[in-house]
Amino acid sequence: MVYFIPLFFLMVSAALDFFCKKDKLTTAIKISFSGFGLLFLFYLTAFKGNIDPDYLSYLNIYNNTPPLTSLSEETLAEARDKAYGIEYGILFLIGLIKAIGGSYQLLLIFFASTSIFLIYKLSKTFNRMHYFIVFALVALFYQGVYIQIRFATACFFLYVSVFYYLNKSDDRYNKIKSLFYFIFGALLHNVWVIILFFPIVIKLRDFFVRHIIVLFLLTLPLSFLGATDFISFTIENFLSRYNTYLLEYEDFSGSKFPYYWRLILNLSLFYLLIFREKKIIHEISAVERLLLAFLFLNLASWAVGYNFPILYRVSWFFDVGYIFFILGFSRSQFLFKKIFFFVLFTIYLFYRVNNGMSSFSDFYIDWV
Q: How many Å apart are CA 275 and CA 229, to the nearest integer?
């Protein structure tokens, strides 16, 4: 139950953000509830004990990495080999923490504080619904900020980079800042590879908007294609670091259910959004068009990758696309639509969190 406490406070802040007009009292309550929720989340993620599957894995990586002052080509290669080819950025980060006398706990504090800062920063790249977006991001990546800490933090770095660039691409200084966020994300996790396809996605984002319903439906036949051999070949030959995942899940048989309910959810919310308000689609910004494209890519990746747990992270990366619905419904003039969306979307977010916590143990504080 303790894991839900931050979410309840963030949910209240999100509801006030979504339904209430701005005034001093409402703003003060939103700041208080959101601030407490994020502070409690920091407490849970920075001072957790061995409550999740990756805790000991990162502890081993930490123990096998020498201080920055002792790093050499040989010791770096050895540490990276023991960490199954992990990115150099995390090894240098651990080396720096050890060089200044820090412990494993400082690594957890770094990731907890950085993730929360980036969630806040990402919400500010949009011109409204900041508190609702914070709630959604925390819930969508709740498992990630505890377990896949490198992946989640790298995603936040890359989101800020891309959205910052699109919002303020006419400013050279902002382009440099965008590049800065990209580099830091790439140093932590190779999820940055997905960014290589973004120029094409950005170029086609108007196409995605015009044909999004058809594109959603076209993911359905993808779920029946036998892509197992192709995906296995790609991982074995180009992403050999993840061969261990193939062996671990060799007999794994995934369910199409997560794809089906996402398809139904996206179609339902989109039709509800444009019901008697088609003009909303014509008012969306460049970033919102990209978010809509992300929703399609999320569905497509689930359709072809449901049998490969390692590809779930590709789908999770595109979960940020759900912000599109938050921004879209915030423009609606119909209260019943906004209430229906908020209730349904909140249920969805808590369902996601509950599923993600299935591998968690009871929380306890530790200092390593």
A: 42
Residues linked to residue 181 through DSSP beta bridges, in sequence order: none
Is residue 192 within 8 A of residue 156, CB to CB? The reply is: no
Confidence (pLDDT) at 27: 94
pLDDT of 19 reads 96
- Distance separating alpha carbons of residues 162 and 179, to the nearest angstrom: 9
> Which of helix, strand or coil describes residue 365?
strand
Euclidean distance between CA atoms 351 and 285, whole angstroms:
29
Query: Can you give the pTM of this predicted structure?
Result: 0.91
What pLDDT is recorded for position 181?
93
Q: Could you tell me the CA-to-CA distances from 122 to 98, 278, 366 in Å, in that order?
A: 30, 27, 30
d(CA 284, CA 332): 12
Q: Are 6 and 40 in contact (CB under 8 A)?
A: yes
Environment class of 5 (CB within 10 Å of its CB; exposed 0-12, middle 13-18, buried 19+)? middle
Q: How far apart are CA 138 and CA 156, in angstroms?
A: 11
Type of residue numbered 122: L
- At residue 196, the pLDDT reads 78
- Closest among 186, 176, 129, 130 to 153, alpha carbons compared: 186
pLDDT tier for residue 325 given thresholds of 50, 70 and 90: very high
**Predicted confidence (pLDDT) at residue 172 exceeds the cutoff of 60:** yes
pLDDT of residue 318: 93
Tokens of 318: 């595109």
What pLDDT score was predicted for residue 198? 81
Contact in structure between 47 and 367 (CB atoms under 8 Å): yes
| CB half-sphere exposure, 203, CA atoms < 13 A | 5
The residues, ordered by sequence, that sit 6+ positions from 280 with a Cβ below 8 Å of its Cβ are 273, 274, 328, 331, 332
**Where does residue 27 rank: exposed (0-12), middle (13-18), buried (19+ CB within 10 A)?**
middle
The secondary structure of residue 48, as a DSSP letter, is B
